[in-house]
Amino acid sequence: MKKVLQGNSAIARGAWEAGVKVACAYPGTPSTEILQEIADSYPEIYVEWSTNEKVALEVASGAAIAGARAMASMKHVGLNVASDPFMTLAYTGIKAGLVIVVCDDPNLHSSQNEQDSRNWARFGKVPMLEPCDAQECKDFTKIAFEISERFDTPVLLKGETRVSHSDSPVKLEERKEGKVPLGLDPKNVPKYVMVPINARVRRKIVEERMKKLEAYADKFKYNKMEINSQNIGVISSGVAYLYTKEVFPEYSYLKLGMVWPLPKKIIAEFFKKVKRVIVVEELDPFLETEIKAMGYKIFHGKDVIPNMYELSPEIVEQAIKGKGYKPPKIKVKPADLPRRPPNMCAGCSHRALFYSLKKLGAYVFGDIGCYTLGAAPPLSALHSCICMGASIGGAHGAMKALGKEGLGKVCAVIGDSTFLHGGVTPLMDVAYNKGNSTTIIADNRITAMTGHQEHPGTGFTVRQKSTHMVDYAELARVLGIKNVRKIDPYNVKETMQVVKEELERDEPSVIVTTNSPCIMLRREKRKFANPYYMIVTDKCRGCKMCLEIGCPAISWKEGAGETKDGHKRKGTVMINKAVCVGCELCAQVCKFEAIVPGKV
Amino acid sequence: MMKKNGKVTNIFLSGVGGQGTILASNILTEVFLDAGYDVKKSEVHGMAQRGGDVTTHFRFGKKVYSPLIKYGDVDFLLSFELLEALRYINWVKDGGKIVINKQEIFPPAVNLGLAQYPQDVEKIFKKYFKEDVCMVNGQEIATKLGNVQAANVVLIGAFSNFFPEIKEEKWIKAIKGLLKEKLHELNIKAFKEGRKAL
Ligand code: SF4
Ligand code: SF4
After folding, report:
1. Read out DSSP for A384-406?
2. CA A369 from chain center: how many Å?
């Protein structure tokens, strides 16, 4: 049977068909749907949202060592977090298949950097497969498990935005259990205990395995040659292959399904069959560098194909045709149109929190999540954002650098899921090293940015079973933070008061927002006293104060007028009743009592 | 309008997060797969859920390679919002067909009074594409049926007229397959009303 599947769903399907028993992940665009799909569709598989990618990989590796096929999935920056177990698992190998799916995000659609994960394969000495569409996503997932078991190694499967989030037809097959029996082998200590004396032995095995994998790559049937033109041949992989094939169907191709290690014999053959070879790859000159190092001359590569942002058919066409490329006519300049950047939802508690922080003039070390949008104007209330958990360490470091000068000026803001992912250890560090920084945990009761995934603070597992729920205040106290306070961010006055006190305190403190669930989260929908607010146009002086909060429900209307008590104005504001949820933030901001509860 | 010579047809969908652009593109995917074509669809997720713009590339034909449409090579533009239609006007090839939902959703800069929402979007399109431009009041039609949410399916209904060789049942089958049962009646009505609107 053929079914249209998204690349990520096809990976999930492949895992199921391959007999996977354990699947772990931390949500991250564009990888999130892999685990969600397994949770929703394949009850045979144990599945969990792990607290971070490192944990996910560790759990999956434990399962594999116990004989169960296991998978960990993450986005590109997630593999940085998981890199510690990853690099050593290449040494230990596994027992049952272990596949690590890593999804890149060329063009940084929703990421803090753009990195080419193929480098991790070379760095970690681990084979990597790269599918180009949903059918290959499914097939390659299954093959990855076979390679993993055959060569006793973890295997990387590379996704990326246009593969993970593309849909195309897939042929469905049945589930087959893996061949490895379940059970732990206590005699295998030298293989799994990576103390130096054992690791040194394994080090050599890694190199030997790489040799065997190279030989395998030459026989791998998804390293495919298509000979059309004798003149020009393209070496490519993944979606870059599809773009090139689309615009130059007449060329010859070597399409690599395995991007590490490379098939040296097939490459040599390809160079014999075509006169000029062009390497088309997204991001780094990974294949190009390797192929050049083999001693071949490349006709075109990164000299014309960009090494940043994502490729597309016309970018490839333009690059290869050079001056011969004719772009389509411009009818309207897109730059002249207003952009539509993402914005925090109407009534989001983060908006209220950031408004208070902005009023206090605090330097805010931010983190990764919906609240990162607090950096956008008009709030502009966030001053740094590096990686998950960096807010707390950053604020601590800044306070150490500034000494008493920093009091009252610096804080860290981190979301609930992010705090559990990467914030617990730096917070421990703050207490341990006698810091005095303030950490605000913006608790919206869910991992909101990636589309509402559960985490250890929500009280629910990935399959919506109730479970233990972390109490942030209690946790902070155990880590050594004596000052733990709660705020209702919707109460601006009180929030400013509490935050100010804690910023000035010469001791570490944690502030947890309460009553602040994500406004889109049905389960915990916060009830506001009034369903919506409205503008009393007679009183509105057009001061634009309420526009400063950037609520999508409020808009400005040009037009000279006068208030009832005779103040001139250049325009008024309007609240869109359908969008407003009645959070009251704008009413607190308005100095002229022009914003009032709407009628029920 | 379907190409028998194995050429690929490119459909570009644009809208604002929350408008149901993705559902609309899923319906297209099911319909054209059912009709025996190879299909590919690609969309950008993530931040889009926070009111950002959403675009979907949808392609069908005998064999489809790239999941992305080439810039300037769009055969059909289906837009759920006026500004988001204009933003992609350059993508449409000469002679391309355009269906636009008459709805304005202000982006932040317009709300703040810092930028102007574009005027006369219909006129601009008419200038380049003449009678190939169709405007549909999806909101109004869906509201009359009792649920604004169905506006996207109204638009799909209108759009379906471009593919007369695909029977109505195929569209309805796809709608039923993708939506919860309690939404079937409303959305089938929305589809049929949309079909009449062009
Ligand atoms: S999704 Fe939730 S947390 Fe994110 S901006 Fe919207 S209301 Fe806020
Ligand atoms: S009450 Fe004001 S700030 Fe809150 S959602 Fe409504 S318009 Fe926006």
Report:
1. B--STTHHHHHHHHHHHHHGGGG
2. 9
Q: What are the angstrom distances between the C-alpha of A5 and each of A84, A136, A158, A554?
A: 33, 11, 17, 39
A497: Cβ contacts below 8 Å, ≥ 6 apart: none
Please, which pLDDT band fits residue A471 given cuts at 50, 70 and 90?
Answer: very high
List CB contacts (< 8 A) between B43 and chain A: 165
**How far apart are the C-alpha atoms of A257 and A269, rounded to whole Å?**
17
Cβ within 8 Å of A, B 89-108: 89-91, 93, 106-108
Separation in Å, CA A568 to CA A28, A47, A539, A540, A543: 50, 62, 11, 10, 11
Q: Could you say which of B50, B69, B87 has the minimum Cβ distance to residue A344?
A: B50
Q: Is the ipTM of this complex over 0.90?
A: yes
Distance CA A498, CA A510 (A): 11
Return the structure tokens found at A358.
């902005």
Q: Give this prediction's pTM.
A: 0.95
Chain A interface mutation, best of B70, B103, B127, B129, highest count of A Cβ atoms under 10 Å: B70
How much is the pLDDT for A398? 97
Looking at all shown ligands, the one closest to residue A586's CA atom is 2
Q: Describe the crossing of helices A83-92 and A196-219 by its angle, rounded to 10 degrees.
A: 80
Burial of B137 (0-12, 13-18, 19+ CB in 10 A): middle
Closest CA to A279 of A296, A263, A266: A296
Chain B residue with CA closest to A549: the answer is B112
Judged on CB neighbours under 10 Å (0-12, 13-18, 19+), A465 is exposed
Nearest ligand atom owner, CA of A585: 2
Q: Are strands A166-171 and A224-226 parallel, antiparallel or unpaired?
A: unpaired
* A550 CA to centre of ligand 2 in angstroms: 10
Max Cα–Cα distance, chain A, nearest Å: 89
B117: contact with A, CB 8 A cutoff: yes
B99-133 pLDDT, tens digit per residue, is 999 999 999 999 999 999 999 999 999 999 999 99
DSSP H helices in B112-167:
121-129, 138-145, 151-160
Q: What is the pLDDT of residues A507-555, one digit of tens each?
A: 999 999 999 999 999 898 888 999 999 999 999 999 999 999 999 999 9
Instruction: Provide the sign of the torsion angle of the four alpha carbons A184, A186, A189, A195, taken in this order.
Output: positive
Tokens read off for A303: 């000299």
Structure tokens at A332: 């309207």
Q: Least CA distance to B92: which residue of chain A? A: A328
- In Å, what is the CA distance from B111 to each residue of A59, A548, B121? 47, 11, 19
**Residue B146: CB atoms within 10 Å:** 11
